[in-house]
Structure formats: C-alpha cells, structure tokens
C-alpha cells in the first residue's frame, strides 16, 4: 500500500473558481476512490487551490503527511504559478494528472504547469484521461509503485559486511553518492562479526534447523566438504546475520565472503539464500535482500526490485551463453533464494527441488551449495551500473526456461553444476548484451516491471538504458 496525496488546482479568478468547485470535487473524489479501490491510502488536501496562499499552505499540509507520491489534479484550467508554488512546498515524487474534457481545459492547465516545472528542472510525471480507463489507471499506478519504491529507499541502511571482493570495482560504490542520489546510508561491518556471533545461537536451535533442512531438502553429505558440522556452521552464520540485521537496523545487506570466509570458515551460500527467501525453518518471514560478494550496486538494484514487486530477487553471475539455444546460464554460488525453485508459497514445494551439495574447489572451507533450477516464467532483469561516475540502470525482459531432465543436467554441468541456475532467454541479442552490459552480476524478479523501473529512474535522476524490447 502506498500513501498518495492529492492536491486539486483551479482558476485564480474568484468568480470563476467559485463556479468550478462542484466539478473539481467530483473529479477529485473519482480519482481518490479509484486509487483507494486499489488498496492505497489517499489523502486529499482540504481545500482546492485557487490562490497563491492556498497553493503553499495546502501543499505544506500534504507534505506534512509524508505521501509517497503527490498528485496535482487538473480538472479545469489552473493558473500555472499555483503549480510552481505547490511544487516548491512538495518534496518527493510528483505526478500531474489531467482530464481530457473539451468543456473544461484541465489538460491545458497540466501542460502549462508542467512546462513551468520543466523550466526549473523539477522532475515530475504526467498522466491524462479518465481514471476509469484501465490504461489511464495503470499509468497512474505505475508512478505510484515507483514512488513507493523510491520513498522506501530514502532513509534506509545498507549493511556492508566486509570490503571489496576479489578486486571487483563494480561491487563498490561511493557512500556520499548513495546518500545524495538514493538517500541510503551504508554501515560498514567486519566479517569477523559473522564468525564471532556464529557461536551465539543455541545448539538446540541449530540442530532443529539442520534436521528441518535434511527433511525438507536433499542434503548430500560427503564427509569432507559437507558434513553435519559444516552445515550447522552455515546455519550459525545465518543466525549471526539475523543478529546484525536486528542490532544495526539494516534494511538490506551484502556479504563479502570471498576469500576469507570461503577459504577459512565456510561459505555464505545458505545464509544468503535464506535471507532472500520469504521463509526459513522457523516459518514465514520478511525477505531481506542480501547480495553476495558485498556487491553494493547489486544489492541496491535488488532492493529496488523487491520494493516494486514484493518478491524475492534473484542475484546471479552472467556465467555462460548457450549459443545453440540463445539461452544464458545465470549462475552464482548459492545466491538464488530457494523460492525460485518452484516460486511457491509452500517451502516444501521449493525445497523438494533444492539440493544441498558439497562446495566445489573454489571454496576450501566447505559447506553446502544451494542448488536448484529457476522455475520457468517471464521476468524483468536489471542492474544499476555507472559510466564515468554517473548512475544508469540497465533493464531488459526475458524468460526463465526449463527443458527435459537430461538437457537441464547437461546444461548445468557445463558450468558449475552444484550451484543454482536460471536458464534465461533474454529479449536482447547476445551481441548487444555483451557489448553494453556494465557488470558481471545481474538481478531479476518475475513479471514485467520495465515501466516501473523507467519511472523509478526518472524520479531518482538516474539514466534508464533499456535493452532489446525494453528500450
């Protein structure tokens, strides 16, 4: 649910404004009720704006209610300076909404006000038409969802556990730039805190978790890289992260992992997968975005996708391209939430398709890798990247695919079988993707959120760079 403020703007001549009240009130009520019907909280300014004083006072009144999105409603011609004054007192995402009515030129008022905002560089979106029209409603709701995500970022805290992994420039961002552009603070936490706190969980709690995973999933102990003791150590790292999240009030996080923990303690695969899941062995829970390799821009992309969709977000390496199928193998050590195995609300369905295999030679400390194949379906893929210090978001559509068991296994074994895989047909030529994409990591959620991501970028002042049919 989003909180939406509505401010209706009118003609500045008292004898005209007086006769327009009923028409404006009807249009405002229709707009507000349509949005409430979609489950959102709508706050309507008490008075129609028809003077400069009301433009400021009513906008300030709305701003005090902290809406995620403010809508300026134009049902009639509106003096443009009212828009300018109201916008000055209205921080946050802004949408101009106009009717299309030959008898009342609300569209003219929107264009005049919007043009003035353009002249001063005030970012805003526009919608027009009858809110009862599904296409018009969808345009407005796209801005609502984007604004909710943008406001959800501001004032949040990212927990960066460890430093730069294995020399990855793309995994490290400037904290000043994050605060200025996204309103996100960064809390630096040493990986020693995971090691130290891993002893805090009671043995009974850890044993119960291990036994639940053994019952629900397919645990393949080998007596060396994966033992019950190593499995329990991984479970303890999950509890350590939950402690850090609660203690430092972290909204999302990333764990460096390599090479210190993966060489000398255990892998973070189990912790990362279940933090991103909407459940663990103790029941349903809120998803917590956690990026492997402490990838800051990756985690930030994931948090935006989570705020838009409400679903767990996939994190993967762009590992391999099966040219014969025009299909990518998006694969990364243990990072995919187990929810992607079946995309079911029932953990048993997802974990029945999940295997906990012994870690491979990259990670001598051992532990379980969380293996599964992403269930088929359409998805949106995105990644925040930077060019010459300026943020941009790469966005594309695609589809997760699955084949017969023999083909699935053969394809997975061409990379690292033990890791999770998402076989993906991107709606963009491979030459374009490899020639433009600005990271080794990519992120996704089921569904189509291209329009919402475009709106998010506009609201944040970040360049939107669509690939293929998302351009």
UniProtKB/TrEMBL annotation:
* Limits of the L-fucose isomerase N-terminal-2 domain: 252-309
Give residue ranges for domain L-fucose isomerase C-terminal. Answer: 330-464
Q: Which residues form the signal peptide?
A: none
InterPro entries according to UniProt: Fuc_iso_dom3_sf, Fuc_isomerase_C, Fucose_iso_dom1_sf, Fucose_iso_N1, Fucose_isomerase, Fucose_isomerase_dom2_sf, Fucose_isomerase_N/cen_sf, Fucose_isomerase_N2
L-fucose isomerase N-terminal-1 domain: which residues?
Answer: 2-155
Identify the keywords attached in UniProt to this record, alphabetized.
Answer: Carbohydrate metabolism, Isomerase, Manganese, Metal-binding
The record ties this protein, via SUPFAM superfamilies, to: FucI/AraA N-terminal and middle domains
Which GO MF term does the entry hold, naming one? manganese ion binding
The family database entries (Gene3D superfamilies) matched by this protein are listed as: 3.40.50.1070, L-fucose Isomerase, Chain A, domain 2, L-fucose/L-arabinose isomerase, C-terminal
Q: Which biological process annotations from GO are given for this protein? A: D-arabinose catabolic process; L-fucose catabolic process
What are the annotated GO cellular component locations?
Answer: cytoplasm
UniProt-recorded name of the protein: FucIase
């Amino acid at each position: 649910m989003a909180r939406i403020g509505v401010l209706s703007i009118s003609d500045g001549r008292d004898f005209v404004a007086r006769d327009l009240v009923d028409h404006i009130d009807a249009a405002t009520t229709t707009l507000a009720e349509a949005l409430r019907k979609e489950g959102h909280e709508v706050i309507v300014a008490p008075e129609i704006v028809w003077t400069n004083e009301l433009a400021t006072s009513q906008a300030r009144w709305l701003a005090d209610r902290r809406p995620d999105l403010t809508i300026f409603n134009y049902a009639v011609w509106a003096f443009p300076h009212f828009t300018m004054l109201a916008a000055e007192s209205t921080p946050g995402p802004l949408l101009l909404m106009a009717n299309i009515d030959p008898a009342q030129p609300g569209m003219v008022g929107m264009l005049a006000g919007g043009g003035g905002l353009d002249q001063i560089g005030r970012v805003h979106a526009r919608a027009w038409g009858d809110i009862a029209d599904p296409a018009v409603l969808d345009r407005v709701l796209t801005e609502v969802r984007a604004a909710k995500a943008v406001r959800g970022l501001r004032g949040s805290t990212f927990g960066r556990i460890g430093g730069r992994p294995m020399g990855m420039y793309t995994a490290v961002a400037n904290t000043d730039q994050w605060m200025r552009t996204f309103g996100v603070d960064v809390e630096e936490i040493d990986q020693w805190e995971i090691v130290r706190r891993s002893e805090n969980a009671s043995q009974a709690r850890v044993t119960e978790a291990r036994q639940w995973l053994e019952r629900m999933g397919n645990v393949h102990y080998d007596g060396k890289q994966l033992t019950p003791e190593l499995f329990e150590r991984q479970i303890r790292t999950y509890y350590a992260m939950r402690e850090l999240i609660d203690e430092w009030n972290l909204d999302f996080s990333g764990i460096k992992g390599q090479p210190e923990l993966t060489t000398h303690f255990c892998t973070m695969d189990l912790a990362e997968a279940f933090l991103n899941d909407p459940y663990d062995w103790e029941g349903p829970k809120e998803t917590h975005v956690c990026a492997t390799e402490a990838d800051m821009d990756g985690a930030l992309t994931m948090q935006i996708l989570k705020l838009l969709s409400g679903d767990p977000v996939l994190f993967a390496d762009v590992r391999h391209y099966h040219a014969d199928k025009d299909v990518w193998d998006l694969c990364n050590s243990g990072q995919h939430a187990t929810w992607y195995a079946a995309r079911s609300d029932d953990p048993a369905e997802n974990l029945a398709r999940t295997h906990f295999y012994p870690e491979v030679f990259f990670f001598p400390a051992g532990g379980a890798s969380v293996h599964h194949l992403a269930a088929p379906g359409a998805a949106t893929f995105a990644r925040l990247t930077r060019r010459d210090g300026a943020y941009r978001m790469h966005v594309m559509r695609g589809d997760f695919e699955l084949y017969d068991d023999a083909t699935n296994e053969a394809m997975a074994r061409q990379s690292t079988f033990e890791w999770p895989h998402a076989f993906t047909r991107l709606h963009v030529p491979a030459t374009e993707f490899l020639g433009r994409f600005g990271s080794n990591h990519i992120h996704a959620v089921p569904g189509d959120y291209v329009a919402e991501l475009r709106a998010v970028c506009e609201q944040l002042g970040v360049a939107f760079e669509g690939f293929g049919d998302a351009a």
